[in-house]
């Protein structure tokens, strides 16, 4: 990895294990490494249960990592004291998946948005209210909405409130944990475009967690593909879509519907066999080998490492790297 | 045939720009009060409770008789213009005594409930939110307390503490908070799974703030229902202790003590039992109905 300065967020060999009944461990995140440049969006994709949300929550500090480093703006946040951590939380915020569960039903919109300001003692009552009005305008809501309760809003509006809440304490890095997957398709684009607009205006850095690849393609500069707690491929968006290397990524991409029946019929879709293996007892070697059509005996023996194929295109697959 | 554009009219099209009228914003309290006002039964209950409370404050001085002065010439008088509720076997004015007793009964009900609910809510909130080992031990403490027959403990405690208001409240609340704590804990365990708690954590909120601002307000519904059960429960418990001779001491009195002492003469002077019992019944009923109304009014999801 070259110089560390342009890497605003740097995650190194992050592991998060959960203890389940007795001595068994659930390896939700098993040694992932990536970086995000300032002002960039990294899309993190993978099927349900692959650990992408856990990775996001661990980076945010909601879970204590089992192992690994999370360096944000040159500071390793896993080594901060709880007081320093509170200060640091101002830099990272999260937008949650479910806009119905992520807003406290007993609080008004202005209380919800101003909560971060109250916690960090930023400003008097008047300045807070002004800030709330500003934020509401920024996310496309009205000042009149400030004194209402969350249940008076639609899903899309609620998600906008969630975004305003995250923006209130002026963070630099925002983790979007499937911010649109609970919304109607017609609203999804609105919220995504709002996120893109905000990124440009406020110079935000995003980690965009999702499972909808076309959505991720629209917003991300680079995409990381996760499978069973591990990263299998990272590349910039065009490269990943046009020069796909990992068989798992290929399968994911083939599942994107094409809005043209002519192509849709001709498209070769790759069907993955079987289920996602258990994270408690993952397969030896390459974890994907149980569902991979190219798997050989070598795949069961050694775990593939993320290897650079081109300058910014990393892949973890024996079949791809052995050809080189 | 020629048709021009003017031949077509779009039915129901409003050409003028629509006035966007926002309804005025109401605070949480204002809105709850607005909805409570629509509930006639709850308002009637609230009215009865206010009257009862006012009478307890003013009543003893209204009839012109002191509640503890005996008059041997006027024993067991039936209700009349002179003695509105009649007199008791010692010739004391029952009107004054009923409201004097109401002071004690309501005071024990309110103060005791306040203590029970506060302690129970905090205990349950902390236990449920922190979870893990702390939760385990905190719940075992409650189980030990619950496993001892509460009446026995209350009697023993009031024997130990002596009689009087304060010891009565201590004896009644020492075990009264456990059921509230259990209920709140159960509710908190559910609520803390929701994402808004995670959102608060990620904003840097302290544990105290999360419990007080996010978890407990969301249990308000069951707290209110619990209050409406606890107040009459404590009034009943006080009546029982007074009956056993462990409650308030003569010449002071309470609704329970009045009812208990009237029991001996129920065949001859039923009015002596009627008035204190009526007050107890009215209080209980009003609290229950008001509690129902409040629960609906305070639920933001039922806002229309």
Model description:
The complex is a heterodimer of chains A (324) and B (304). Chain A has helices at residues 52-60, 82-88, 109-119, 125-138, 155-167, 185-202, 213-219, 237-242, 247-254, 261-266, 297-301, 318-323, and strands spanning 7-19, 25-37, 41-45, 67-72, 75-76, 92-95, 173-177, 205-210, 222-227, 230-236, 307-310, 313-315. By secondary structure, chain A is of the alpha/beta class. Chain A folds into 2 domains: 7-91 and 171-323, Rossmann fold; 106-170, no CATH class. Helices cover 34% and strands 23% of the residues of chain A. The radius of gyration of chain A is 21 Å and the shape is globular. By secondary structure, chain B is mostly helical. Chain B has a single domain, classed as MetI-like fold. Chain B is 67% helix and 0% strand. Chain B has 11 helices and no strands. Chain B has helices spanning 28-38, 40-62, 94-130, 132-147, 150-161, 165-191, 195-202, 207-215, 220-243, 255-262, 270-298. In chain B, helix 2 (40-62) crosses helix 3 (94-130). The longest helix of chain B has 37 residues, at 94-130. The model of chain B has no long low-confidence stretch (mean pLDDT 81). Classes of the chains: A alpha/beta (324), B mainly alpha (304). Chains A and B meet through strand 6 and helix 3 of A and helix 7 and helix 8 of B.
